[in-house]
Amino acid sequence: MAARYDVIGIGNAIVDVLAHSDEEFLAAHGLAKGAMTLIDADTAKALYDAMAPAIECSGGSAANTIAGLASLGATTAFIGKVHDDQLGAIFRHDIRALGVAFETLLATGGAGTARCLIFVTADAQRTMQTYLGACVELGPGDIDDELVAASKVAYLEGYLWDPPGAKEAFILAATIVRQAGRTVALSLSDPFCVDRHRDDFCDLVNDHVDVLFANEEEIKSLYQVDTFDDAMQRVRGHCRIAALTRGDKGSVVISGDEVHVVDAVPIEHVVDTTGAGDAYAAGFLFGITHDFDLGPSAHIGGIVAAEAISHFGARAEVSLDELVRRELGSS
Fold first, then answer.
1. Phi, psi (degrees; rounded to nearest 5) at 160
2. Partners of 38 in the beta sheet?
């Protein structure tokens, strides 16, 4: 069967709430700087009431990657759970307006649509406090078998491994993809997420994952090693492709005996690192689904990540298709 979509993302459907913050605010509220922490509804309300004026837009790790892919010109779909409420309407409108197919049934009872309160400090670090809300209701029944099997790549976010139903949906989707002869891609998402689920993630990478995305801290945490070089050696052979990001050091892509070291795309000023890894994954997945080799795919990932960190918020402020064409034409 011919692929209908380049990439389908399966992840937490979250509305991002972004605001500037300072170190004193983080300390006063006991927030772990630079990390993602799961919170309950009461904490989400208290932090929302305390935070500075904010920007609200659809978000979530896999959804950000799918949005980036859509801006690059890829055909995309997304599976994620939102409630039939105001924030759910924001998410549905935003992602569909990008041309992404999104038909997951709305939750009509229980918790409201998930939100991620993102506090961005002057050093461009983002500290995320996430209330999963309706996301925890995502389950195997939300996985459209035909839709998943008709996608070249199914991209899954590590954050999905927290809710039990989502975990089952995750494994079901990966199984469908592999049976259809397609590609499974996984983002480790966050070092704290890796710490919670290390053994499961190692099994996933070995048994289900073709393309692994991780930053330097995440891959070191996965294999419990002290250096990036040691982590590189450990991941080799456990999946077909490992795309590892290193911030301003660029990225390293490992596939069997191949190793591609790709410099970061320079920018004048880093404003906000929110979504940098999601953006890189979008560029890389666009490359490998459009017949680019691994090195050029990583370069496209770097171009898209540089755009993401040059402004406030995770979603692109320009046409990524035009940006990449321009950058590749001048390189």
1. -65, -15
2. 130
